[in-house]
Amino acid sequence: MNYIQAIILGIIEGLTEFLPVSSTGHLIIGSALLGIDSKDQFVQLFIVAIQLGTILSVIVLYFKRFLKSLNFYYKLFVAFLPAVVFGLLLDKQIEHFLGSIETVAISLLIGGIVLLFIDNVFKNPQEDNADRIKYKNAFVIGIWQCLAMIPGVSRSAASIIGGMQQKLTKKAAAEFSFFLAVPTMFGATAKKLYDFYKQGYHVSAHQWGLLGVGNVVGFVVAIIAIKAFINYVSKNGFQAFGVYRIIVGIIILAFIFSGHSLQMM
């Protein structure tokens, strides 16, 4: 991987992390298009660790919300617990599917179909403030989020749908999804770094540079994407994202079944 590739992947991460289109799936696709082996040990670390920049974007944008009360953190912890449990139990299975283009394509397609109809399924929200959700609701949203352990599902989509199923408005569900991303993504990155070193791998100075560039780019792009997404989804819903996922999923499956490689560069 070189710095140009790291910048491109940083842009992809910043644009897609908080949209219901799967950032991990797009990073895997982006890696393939750039000629990067997504099953390479460092590339898998990069795909997870690049999320740190986008975590920071949430903290910067919602700084005051993170200073409100301890209850806010308790609810995030409760919502985070399912990811910890399932992440530890399914770690090997997650690693196996992390570089699978086929899994990403199928997940994008199925998730896109769900998003086409999700606005009509949950039509009577009762709570417009993500800070006021109950612990039970937070835990259920956390269970929904675990679906995103399948590449291509989208952590954002899963947790937002979970929030809407728990009677949150689209805006409140999206915001809680952003907040929940902080402990979830930080935990996933910390575990990946630990596993990386446990297996005897060491990050070189060049690789640290790639991680730094990718995170900075992801941070800047994510700030813009979050603001635009909240405004758009509050007014228009999720159908456009569903259509996008279906188109991308079909294109990828067409490449796979035609025997062509996604590697272009």
Give a short overview.
The protein contains twelve helices and no strands. The chain is an all-alpha fold and 265 residues long.
Structure description:
With about 260 residues, this protein is mainly alpha-helical. It has one domain (about 5-255). It is built from twelve helices and no strands. α7 packs antiparallel against α12 (about 240-255), α8 (about 135-145) packs antiparallel against α9 and α10 runs antiparallel to α11. It is globular, with a radius of gyration of 18 Å. The mean pLDDT is about 85.
Question: Which sequence of SSEs, written as H and E, runs from N to C?
Answer: HHHHHHHHHHHH
What structural class results from the helix and strand content?
mainly alpha
Fraction of residues in helices? Answer: over 70%
Output the number of helix runs: 12
Rg of Cα set: 18 Å
Query: What share of residues are in beta strands?
Result: under 5%
Return residue spans where pLDDT drops below 50 for at least 5 consecutive residues.
none
Mean pLDDT metric: 86
What does the main sheet amount to?
none
The outline comes out as globular
Q: Terminal Cα separation, in Å?
A: 12 Å
How many domains would you count in the coordinates? 1
DSSP strand tally: 0
